[in-house]
Amino acid sequence: MEFRYPAAVAETNAESLEYLTKNLADKEAGKIAFEKLVNELGNAVDSYPEWHPIITLPPSDDDGRYVGQIDAYKEADHTQTFVKGFVTCPYSSDSADRLVNSVNEIAPGQLHAYRFEHSLYHDMAYPVVVVALDIELEADGTIRSRDALAWCAQKLVKHARDAQVAETWWNIRGELLGSPHGSRSSVLVNQHTGIHMRKILEALNNSGMYGPIKEVSLDMLPAKKRTKISETLLNAALNSRPETGSCKFEFNLRDETCKAEIKDTWGDGTELSIRVNIGEYDLYTSGYYYPNRKLIETSDPKGKRALAEKFL
Predict the structure, then answer these.
(1) Assigned domain for 138 exists
(2) Containing domain of residue 275, as a range?
(3) Is residue 137 part of a domain?
(4) Cα dihedral across residues 19, 24, 27, 31: positive or negative
(5) Do 81 and 118 lie in a common domain?
(6) Per-chain mean pLDDT for the chain
(7) Residue 312, pLDDT above cutoff 90
């Protein structure tokens, strides 16, 4: 389904509101507190891009896109994330105080944590708000373009010397856009920003600084084309199999050597599991065939676009 910003914002905010108020005795007061959070922190999000200050400002040995994966936030519990920061609701007042102290020591003037005076998640919880102070929002509620692009570029070049392959936009756009996201925008960054992030990544990839480009995702192709590619390969495997039941074999299709594996899932011929790959996973797909219904169910293919398009 195509990403639509208003619908995505409505969904993430509704889910976050439900999570933070469902256990409260006074849900209406919780709703008012939630609206205060949205006014301060922006809309609710599912995950941060890897360049977001909430992720990058804690010590460099921390690694992850989620608050719970970062050691500096280890006291966090029952957490909801927003564009500019997060709220978390530990059950211990001491835990809440330790989290506030820990965050405020990381980057004074850039990260700020404080005890939230309203009840959220549970009446016996002790909410803490953590906000990235340098984040400014565009009129549409996304992160200011020039800041997002600068942070993204800094993150992209940070580990270039240690890289072995270059990742395409389609492989890592979730890490650069945050989620929920579409092909070139998200709840955190608008289309203008996303388009320029992609241009920066592609320029760096084309420079060769990361090494050879690794193609995996084929999400740039429409769903109908991805399905067609998988169906072509799986049908060819079925038509080329040397024996019934489970087997491994090779076959040629459109000047490519394909490796196939077919398994009789239940041993009774009612369901066949099929995998096909070309090269060292230059292109691969899998699915199921149900002989009684003459039905094929496919998964999305993965691999190199130029190779995949030979099977359309």
Answers:
(1) no
(2) 223-311
(3) no
(4) negative
(5) yes
(6) 94
(7) yes
